[in-house]
Write a structure and sequence with these properties.
302 residues; alpha/beta; Rossmann fold; 2 domains; six-stranded parallel beta sheet
């Protein structure tokens, strides 16, 4: 032991994993690296793994065929004990989903809907109802939706609930108020600009996530619209930037760090008891009302 201390010897982790059949490494697959919401999840995952004596191997899978082969190659080269997906497996490309099914290692998903493996689910449909009730209560009747996703099904929990609430309120479903776009900031900016640069513009915008909501706020400012005086904007995730925009952003918190920690706990439980039935944890989202939403100021929109 004195010689080990003197030489600063550290055991070879790969050799240990071959001997013990365990790597103490968890693979985390992330589809989007631009959105701080996923950074917050990673923070919760990393902290919980470290406390349990595990390390993290991060793989970026951007949900396009061009990168799928690279992702699979990376996953097969890096031995891990299990996986955490920051998206439902059904949203991934087929070859990657098949690999996870056949890998014979536990998988936990963080998702917005029912999922194939153990999962942590964000109840964003309930958050959407609360957000729509808030906007309707402020007198808004023309509510637009900036729907920016890489794959359309990713935000159906919010889009379909938005439509349902409008129908329940006796308001017509106007497809021209839904602007589908990509997930980049410029996509959100252009979508919001198009919606707002029209005579019958919406008096409020629902935006798929906070990052694109910030882009929408820029579009409104470029068109000379004050927030919330001329336009209300609300979104989802409650990323740290949402508290520092001007005005501060009304949003539905997805409790990202808590979700990350919950995912690790599910995975550790699966390691300890492989025969458990499917495990599901529901994260209770929270509507956070800030300064970006206010009463409608256009009489014709009441």
């Amino acid at each position: 032991m004195d010689v080990i201390a003197e030489l600063g010897y550290e055991p070879d982790a790969r050799a240990q994993s071959l001997r013990l059949g365990s790597t103490n490494i968890v693979g985390v697959i992330i589809p989007v690296i631009q959105n701080p919401f996923f950074w917050q999840m990673l923070s919760g995952i990393s902290d919980e793994l470290q406390e349990a004596g595990y390390s993290l191997h991060l793989t970026h899978h951007p949900l396009n065929l061009q990168q799928e082969a690279n992702t699979l190659r990376e996953l097969t080269r890096q031995p891990v004990d299990g996986f955490i997906l920051l998206a439902a497996a059904k949203y991934l490309l087929p070859r990657l989903t098949d690999y996870l099914r056949k890998a014979a290692r536990p998988v936990v998903e963080i998702t917005a809907a029912k999922a194939e493996f153990d999962h942590v689910v964000h109840a964003y449909n309930g958050g959407t109802r609360a957000l729509m009730a808030h906007l309707l209560g402020l007198g808004h009747r023309r509510i637009g939706f900036v729907y920016g996703t890489s794959r359309e099904v990713q935000g159906f929990d919010r889009l379909l609930t938005y439509r349902e609430v409008l129908e329940e309120a006796g308001l017509p479903h106007d497809e021209t108020l839904e602007m589908h776009c990509g997930e980049a900031l410029e996509d959100g900016y252009q979508a919001a600009y198009t919606l707002l640069d029209r005579p019958d513009r919406p008096t409020a915008l629902l935006v798929i996530n906070d990052m694109l909501a910030i882009a929408a706020m820029r579009a409104a400012d470029d068109l000379g619209l004050s927030i919330p005086g001329s336009l209300s904007i609300a979104s989802f995730d409650d990323i740290p930037f949402a508290r520092y925009t001007s005005p501060r952003l009304t949003t539905v918190s997805g409790k990202a760090e808590e979700s990350g920690r919950d995912a690790v706990r599910l995975l550790l439980r699966r390691f300890a008891e492989p025969g458990l039935p499917q495990q599901v944890v529901t994260t209770n989202v929270e509507l956070i009302i800030r300064e970006s939403t206010g009463p409608v100021d256009m009489p014709e929109a009441r």
